[in-house]
Prior knowledge:
Layout: E1 4-9, H1 16-29, E2 36-41, H2 44-53, E3 59-63, H3 80-83, E4 89-92, H4 95-100, H5 105-117, E5 121-126, H6 130-134, H7 138-150, H8 155-158, E6 162-165, H9 181-199, H10 201-206, E7 208-212, H11 220-224, E8 231-234, H12 241-261
Bound molecules: 2-phosphoglycolic acid.
The site of 2-phosphoglycolic acid has 13 residues, from strand 8.
Amino acid sequence: MTRTLIVANWKMHLNASQASLLLHRLHERIKIYRDIEVVLAPSMLVLQPLSLQIDRRKFRLAAQNAYHKDEGAYTGEVSFTMLQDLVHYVIIGHSERRIYFHEDLDTIRDKVAACVRNGITPILCVGETHEEHHAGETRQVLHDQVVTALSDLTSDEIEDVVIAYEPVWAISTFGGELAKPDDVKKQMTFIRKQVEDLYGKAAAQKIRVLYGGSVDNSIARGYLEIEGCDGVLVGGASLNYHKFSGIVHEAYRLRNEVEDSE
Ligand code: PGA
């Protein structure tokens, strides 16, 4: 069984000293768990100082974005190449990037390819908007987002990819409606099926699929229990050490229950 992946997306919050304080609090509360991988995604500015402070047995780092060219005259951008020694993961195609920064399907495909080319694991975010959801377009949207994003990878490379299903309407800053775990399960199965159709069963089984959208410590379990759900991507609640460590503990409890019953 793969480790349960719990990702904190701090978005554009916390300067270096605030992030350092939050990391300190999380370090006090989160133990080294064999079955749980905890990943922190601070702002780009904070990655470097946090990397010096972090206990690598407990935490890994992710960037929230990067530019798909490796080097050159691209003022204001940071490349995947530059992040190689700092992070294990980069979040790609988050709905805030798609909506506010107009990242389209091709841009996201290029970023996923650049990420893999540089030896970093992509956390590809996919999900339908409120309008698409109500127009019955969810599957079409997920299909297009998944298929395009992965199209430059080989089936071996695909196996390492993480896909986060984040319905836009469920993200706290876009409405924060709670998605029902049963519905989430259907879409996660659909996402794996897209991978299977293109790259085969082995790849579809190996990719990790996360859920994201208003997850906090009180409801995390409902999503973590979904068959085929490999973890959660947490926004708002990850800024609160009590809530975020609570999510990690829920994941740990669940893993132990599952192992006891096996
Ligand atoms: P949320 O954000 O947990 O605040 O809904 C999730 C995300 O945007 O990744």
